[in-house]
Amino acid sequence: RPKALDEPAKPANGGYQILGSIGVPVLLLSSANTVLFANRSAEAVFPVRTGASLLEGFRNPELLKAIEEVREIGVSQTVHYREAPPRERFFLVGIHPVEDGGGRDGARVALSFVDTTENVLIQRMRSDFIANASHELRTPLSTIRGFIETIRGHARKDEAATDRFLAIMQEQAERMSRLLDDLLSLSRLEMKGHVLPASTVSVNGLIGAVAEDLSDIADGYGVSIESTKLAGDLVVRGDEDELTSVLINLVENACKYGSSGGKVELYAETVDLPSGAGVRFSVRDYGPGIAEEHIPRLTERFYRVDVEESRKAKGTGLGLAIVKHILNRHESRLRVESVRGQGSTFSFTLPVSKSG
Fold first, then answer.
1. Which CATH class for the 196-356 domain?
2. Has residue 19 got a pLDDT over 80?
3. What is the pTM of this model?
4. Residue 347, C-beta contacts closer than 8 angstroms, at least 6 positions apart
5. Is 321 in contact with 298 (CB distance < 8 Å)?
6. pLDDT digits (tens, 9 = 90+) for 154-207
7. What topology is assigned to 117-191 in CATH?
8. Is the CATH code 3.30.450.20 the one for domain 11-115?
9. What are the residue ranges spanned by the domains of the chain?
């Protein structure tokens, strides 16, 4: 007998076995937007079921309008579809007229969904990053411009004021230089972020070098660095310069923001990982600690717990973002534990090199 347009499709007999197993969501709709077929991917991603109306799961006017246009003109279209929070997702939807035998049946359309969420979020992050970077650079530039105008104006013959203004201008120029250095570091890390480091690093050598390099800086903050090496040295796979940068960043932050505790501990310890032996590097301070609500955002670019304190400490707001990118390249992640009034511990773990 002829099949009614709104009769649900049967994958076993209707030639949809391949669609049922492909990795992107696919829907087949009747003339009344009844779901005739939904593959496994569609059922896993969207609240749809065969035999139900598309409107139960989709209420996007642009999508529904495009479906009707495809029915009318018989030409495929693509539209952007956004699923609202709490789980915001983005899709590029292909809408295609369905041919039945020798030609179009005039009613059925097929929808395919390509998840573009990651690309959209990356683009959004880049836009935010550019806006934040522009703001961070604009502030010192405005300061420098203002003092130049002052020096060229009524302060031209005031040597004491000129010296004071020049010192501030130098400080702002150095701030811009630090920011640009960090921006370039982030850019380089993003370019090679998918390439795993091929070299190896001595754990004790790393701990010793960082503690020695930062001893003078720590003294300037009234802090002592207490470093503890492994009883027997081990080697981890990693880029020595990048891992040094991670530890310097963490120790320097601990000295700046945890100086009230008087000491910073830098140590390594062996741990068991699912893949075998590992080494956990930790930096511990005894300062004021970090409120829990700030911890998930610490590695965001330009995020600061206290903006004024960060600027006084000459921070760019990019240090922990750089740390995060380096650790991602090493297939590790930064762990933060903090108790208000007791201090904070920043740590990460790397596997012991089996060839080292």
1. alpha beta
2. no
3. 0.60
4. 280, 281, 282, 283, 334, 335, 337
5. no
6. 878 888 888 888 988 888 888 888 788 878 887 777 777 677 888 999 999 999
7. Helix Hairpins (1.10.287)
8. yes
9. 11-115, 117-191, 196-356
